[in-house]
Every structure is written in structure tokens, then in C-alpha cells.
Design brief:
The chain has about 300 residues and is α/β, with parallel strands linked by helices. The protein has eleven helices and eleven strands. It has a seven-stranded mixed beta sheet, sandwiched between helices.
């Protein structure tokens, strides 16, 4: 089963279990079923609980937060993660604070959005801007990958009754689910690779190839909860290895790699390297885009260089 089918099935199950759950977004009604078809069939089965909206992300999220404040579970789709900037005020000044401002308010709200590049969609539809939402008190930020239990993740965040931004790297939608995949764990790996989302598969493939061709033991450590992040998990990895690679599509610094590596401060002779997105807009050329985003070649070369230090 492909990742987008798993998400679609999960949304159908949520709609059936939570009879007052509302799904809201742009162009999500059948027969279109959303830009990436994650909401396909929902409006046919639950016509009164699937709401399509005008092109206004700020009003969309404002409306969704109002519904959630009335204790109605809500899943809001932002068509492309790049457009989250248009809803930033609603997120940082409203939904993340209402639980604190009002005594008896819960916020069972998931904002789900496709993020990242790899499809040649150009500079305004291929960014990874989730770092701008991490560190906001009261807001969960999580990222899916094809190796996790996506259904359980959705259900857990709805049950938490806390606002959640759920990042779905769009390159994953066509990938096959690998729920029973077991990440290689080593007692003393040469290098630990910490990553998330769409970069997890890239790192897994690079690690397999390097084990076969270079006999380098690379352990992949996927992060699913980006914010608030569990820094203790990263700190504890210092007991296993002294060399770390951080991989993310985001670029420009002040992001995932910097936050994760900060938890290694104080370790004896810790070496770190980074593979990130570019420090400039995503190119319109797909070939160029794939070269500047994390890929197996860049990850492998960086691991070899780190190993040989």
C-alpha cells in the first residue's frame, strides 16, 4: 500500500469513529479529492462533514480553530506546506495559545500538509519550512515516514486534544508503506544518522549500500516528533557513537540539524556533519533540484568523509 492510500484509509477510519469530525481544506471534495488525493472519497461518504473553502489559508485555519474550540475534532488540509506562512498568525497567536488563555478549552486539531521537494514544482511549492513552526509553545509538530504507523499517529494526535502540525513530505505519497521494517541497530555503529520525513528512506538506502560496499556501520535514527523534541533520546546516542550525520531538506541554518546537534554538546570528541537543502530557493529545474536536496550520493559521500576523519 502506498503512503497516500494509508493516509486516505486513516482519514476514512477517523471519520467513521469520530462522528463529529470535520475535514476542511481547499479542493478536497470529490471527484477531485485534494491535490494529492489524500481526501478522496471522504465527501462522498460524509457530505456534511467535509468542507471545501475559498483560497484563504488564514481564514481556513481560523475557521478550523473555532470548530476545535467547540470540542469538534478537526483535520485541516493546507494544499502545499509553502502556504502555511499565510496562516502563521492564526497558528502562533491563536491555536497554540487558546488552551492557555481559556481554562476549559481543548484543541483537537490536526493541520496536515504536504511539504518538501523532489517533484520539480519550483521554488514556491517545494520548500521545507516546518522549522519556522518548531519551538512554538503549545503546538506539536510531527513528520511522517513510510516506516511508521501512520494510522496510530493520527489517532494519537486527535486523542491528545492539542493542536498538531503534521508534515507529510510529498515525495512519500507514492512510496510503499514498510510498517514492519526494522531499522538496523548496532551496539557500536561507526556513524549515527539522524533524520526525518522524506529523508529517512534516502539515509536507509545509503546505509545499506555503504555496509555492503565499504563495511561502514551506519545506524539510522528517525525523528517523528519535531517539536517539542525529545532531546534526551539524542543525548543518549553519545554512548553508542562519536560520529553523527544530520540530514534534512530544510536549508539556511537555524533548523533541525542545529537543534539536534546542540544536544551533543559536551560529548568527548564528537564529530558532526550535515546534509541539508540549499541556502537559496529551490530550483525550478527538477534535475538541479534533486542535486541540491539531500540524495543518496551526497549522504554516502558525507558518511565516508566522516568515517575517515
Amino acid at each position: 500500500m502506498r503512503v497516500v492510500q494509508e493516509i486516505n484509509n486513516t482519514l476514512h477510519k477517523l471519520m467513521s469513529e469520530y462522528k463529529d469530525l470535520i475535514v476542511i481544506g481547499e479542493d478536497i471534495l470529490d471527484p477531485y479529492g485534494g491535490a494529492f488525493k489524500a481526501t478522496k472519497g471522504l465527501s462522498t461518504n460524509h457530505p456534511k462533514r467535509v468542507i471545501t473553502t475559498p483560497i484563504s489559508e488564514e481564514s481556513l485555519i481560523g475557521f478550523a480553530s473555532g470548530l476545535a474550540m467547540q470540542k469538534k475534532p478537526v483535520i485541516a488540509e493546507i494544499m502545499f506546506g509553502d502556504f502555511l506562512g499565510l496562516a502563521f498568525d492564526q497558528i502562533i497567536n491563536h491555536i497554540s495559545k487558546f488552551i492557555w488563555i481559556f481554562n476549559d478549552v481543548r484543541m483537537p486539531l490536526i493541520i496536515r500538509t504536504p511539504m518538501g521537494g523532489g517533484r520539480g514544482y519550483g521554488s514556491t511549492h517545494s520548500q521545507s519550512i516546518e522549522k519556522h513552526f518548531c519551538g512554538i509553545a503549545g503546538l506539536n509538530v510531527a513528520a511522517i515516514d513510510q516506516y511508521m504507523d501512520i494510522e496510530k499517529t493520527y489517532f494519537n494526535f486527535i486523542k491528545s486534544e492539542k493542536p498538531t502540525l503534521l508534515i507529510e513530505n510529498k515525495i512519500l505519497y507514492g512510496r510503499e508503506m514498510k510498517k514492519n521494517f526494522k531499522f538496523q541497530k548496532h551496539d557500536k555503529p561507526d556513524i549515527i544518522c539522524i533524520t526525518y520525513g522524506g529523508s529517512v528512506e534516502i539515509c536507509v538506502n545509503a546505509a545499506k549500500k555503504l555496509l555492503e560496499e565499504e563495511e561502514i556501520l551506519v545506524e539510522i535514527f528517525p525523528i517523528r516528533q519535531l517539536s517539542p523534541i525529545n532531546g534526551h533520546l539524542i543525548k543518549n546516542l553519545k554512548r553508542k557513537s562519536k560520529k553523527f550525520l544530520f540530514v534534512e531538506e530544510g536549508g539556511g541554518g537555524w533548523g533541525f540539524s542545529e537543534v539536534c546537534s546542540s544536544y551533543l554538546v559536551g560529548g568527548d570528541k564528537i564529530d558532526v556533519e550535515f546534509v541539508t537543502g540549499p541556502n537559496h530557493p529551490i530550483p525550478g529545474s527538477k534535475k538541479w533540484e534533486l542535486n541540491v536536496l539531500p540524495n543518496e550520493s551526497r549522504v554516502s559521500k558525507t558518511i565516508i568523509n566522516l568515517f575517515n576523519k
